[in-house]
Amino acid sequence: MGTEEEAKEILAQLQSGADFAELAKEHSTDTASKEKGGDLDYFTRGEMTAEFEKAAFSLPVGQISDVVKTDYGYHIIKVTDKQPAKEATLEESREKVREQLFNEKISARMSKWLTEAKEKADIKKF
Q1: What is the DSSP letter of 78?
Q2: Which of 12, 24, 50, 74 could form a cystine bridge with 7, CB 3.0-4.6 A?
Q3: For residue range 75-99, what is the model confidence (pLDDT) as tens digits?
């Protein structure tokens, strides 16, 4: 959310029984989770900002946080589930590692292609 006042208004609505997912769809500025009703899926420590993690990991399942301020704005967090930490295995991580490496290669090739295209282009400014 953009402002603390807006976040406090939404928190009051939640405390009065409003649906978290509906309010997230309506007010969230996070384009990645907005359409999913604010669902961030599971995340581990170190993936979010410190303020966000402190609030999220201290809440019991089913609880809603107070307004949390981070560098990205204001947040209200609802914990819907928790899973115990476990050590990742190669089989579980294989696809994620493959996707990350693929994206890194695409980014590098795209950057090289763009540089070469600019060098070959006849660009005129008017």
Answers
A1: B
A2: 74
A3: 999 999 999 888 889 988 999 999 9
